[in-house]
Amino acid sequence: MIHYKELGLVNTRELFKKAMQGGYAIPAFNFNNLEQLQAIIAASVETKSPVILQVSKGARQYANQILLQYMAQGAVEVAKQMGCAIPIVLHLDHGDSFDLVKSCIDTGFSSIMIDGSHLPYEENIKLTRRVVDFSHRYDVSVEGELGVLAGVEDDVSSEQSHYTKPEEVEDFVKRTGVDSLAISIGTSHGAYKFKVKPGESPPPLRFDILDEVERRISGFPIVLHGASSIPQKIVDEINKYGGKLEDTAGVSEDQLRRAAKSAVCKINIDSDGRLAVTGAIRKVFYEKPDEFDPRKYLGPARDALIELYKHKIINVLGSNGKA
Ligand SMILES: [Zn+2]
Asked: 295: CA distance to ligand 1 center in Å?
């Protein structure tokens, strides 16, 4: 076993405390490969933002857990070398079992999510409590979830969303001992979040639910999943260069900005990054069909990611300068 502190990583406790006091949110960006990680570190160091490196079960299978461990350690060293030792968290996204959580903690994760949101309430509590008891022994922070998001993301999918019931949050937090709570207030997983016609706006987030949750567990860190904005500009670029994405819309950045100022301390962004990479690669393939050096298309994809992440950090989450 390797403990995350040996890798130079931190858990989320201090970061969320400061984010709560400062009225901003910490970015949680998913990664599975080198260019994504390079982009996350470059954007976070340049903006002096703390960051959560997020790995799903699928990403762990794709990239290899040992490699991921050394990549996270490498990220810490690279940030130092770039002149700003930003706090870096290595977080398991949507952990679905005790064994997976244990395996992640054994390989250096500093924070984990246990997602029992699809289970009946009492079973969600039981699973989450067991994971919390184990994780806290190693000072690893735990995110639980109440309510179900619609959409598809790796292994997690649901046809319908079920908003979080504010009357359950106090009991859940108290009985499980989690350090943060993901809630469902109308965000959604994946690139096809809301079926809207061009020019129409997606439904607004349920700030009434968020307010009621905040009232009931005042000062407790809240997490938003499925918070990509699906920028029309990137969708248009993908389609211009041979892609075939359907009409879609994401969560408006205005709404996320408002959420970041509240008890929301962590905002997950994955789909926007996937779109930015796809757009950049398609553009190179379209404009230079004779190109066959992967650096010549993965490089521009990395640059597009850096721009996207910096924009999110500065203009949406407000975590710039908080490292
Ligand atoms: Zn999620």
From this structure: 30
CA distances from 237 to 24, 46, 194, 242, 283 (A): 31, 26, 20, 9, 8
- Out of 93, 154, 270, 272, pick the active-site residue: 93
Q: Could you give the CA distance from residue 205 to residue 184 in angstroms, rounded to a whole number?
A: 9
pLDDT digit string (tens) for 18-45? Answer: 999 999 999 999 999 999 999 999 999 9
Q: Please give the distance of CA 219 from its chain centroid, rounded to a whole number.
A: 21
Spatial distance between the Cα atoms of 244 and 262, rounded to a whole number of angstroms: 37
Q: Is 93 a catalytic residue?
A: yes
Q: Is 198 exposed, middle or buried (0-12, 13-18, 19+ CB in 10 A)?
A: exposed
Q: Given the structure tokens 């500009």, which residue do they identify? A: 233
User: pLDDT for 70-84, tens place per residue?
Assistant: 999 999 999 999 999
Ligand 1: centre distance to CA 187 (Å): 10
Q: Say whether 176 sits in a helix, a strand or coil.
A: helix
**C-alpha span between 56 and 59 (Å, rounded):** 5
Contact by Cβ (8 Å): 180, 221:
yes
Number of C-beta neighbours around residue 46 at 10 A: 16
Q: Report the first-to-last Cα separation within the chain, whole angstroms.
A: 28
Residue 199: band (very low, low, confident or very high) from pLDDT cuts 50, 70, 90: low
Burial class of residue 134 in the structure, from the number of CB atoms within 10 Å of its CB (0-12 exposed, 13-18 middle, 19+ buried) = middle
CA–centroid distance, 80 to ligand 1, in Å, is 29
Per-residue confidence (pLDDT) for residue 60, from 0 to 100: 95
